Amino acid sequence: PPGLTLARLLRLAGIDYIVFERDDSARFSNERSSSRTLVIHKDLGRVALKEASLLEEFQSIVRHDVLIKIADAQGTIQADISGDSIDRKDLRNLLLDSIPDTRIRWGYPVQHAQKENDGSISVHTTDCVDPWFRLVVGADGAWPKVTKQVTLTEPQYSGIHFFTAFIQPGDPTYSSEPSMVGKENYLAMDKGRQIFLHYLGDGSYLLSVGVKLPDSQTVKNAAIFHDPLTLWESLLLTGFAGWAQELTEFIKSSASHFRSWPLHSTPETSLPWNSIPVLTLLGDAAHLT
């Protein structure tokens, strides 16, 4: 989470700051998190954690040398890569614990930022206006509220749509995961379709199913997004026919609550952006790919 990482670095540098959070609390934020795992690279993420004086705490919760098994549609392993892995919510909690709660305004969704005549910039939330900021950093992901100051171009749908669900101990297919995935990650892919199993720190798995889905079809089939059983049956018929049964069984048995994740990216045609000295962007807000 780049915004919280920046907040931690500002705290260590003695620079005053405020974090505006749309979620009402840290608990609610974790509940709505994608809960996927993150691979922390030694030459990128670890450098930031070291600068934030959080590397030791990070080392105590990270899972070292976790394999990502890469397979084809029949479940045959084609390759594997390894890296240090951590649940996104665990990294987020590590960063949240490192900054005073008084610096976070929970339940303040930012609507837009506005440059003022005196050279400062004000932050407009749902219920109030906070003026006289010297710098605003947009770090609110794919749909940041402050980007209209630098570009009017919005992220474009990539044509890939993911659906995610949790597989918990006690679920029908859970016993298959330890033998097939273990405490690792597993990615099966073929012709733009993907089945990704993320092993999480609490022993559960996050199932991510990715398919090519035109935007027009997304709108046309919007109704099935509210019915998990119908959705999974549709995916099996149209997207995963011919795949190994051990893989499609994960989809078939995951008729529980799921989340819809259409993937977007920032079009190159939006560049160059307007330069505003009092505003900048960070993370996905700056380079959504």
TrEMBL record:
It comes from the Eukaryota. Gene3D superfamilies: FAD/NAD(P)-binding domain. One of its GO terms (molecular function) is monooxygenase activity. Signal peptide: none annotated. The keyword Flavoprotein applies. This is FAD-binding domain-containing protein. It comes from Hypocrea atroviridis (strain ATCC 20476 / IMI 206040) (Trichoderma atroviride). Keywords: FAD, Flavoprotein, Monooxygenase, Oxidoreductase.
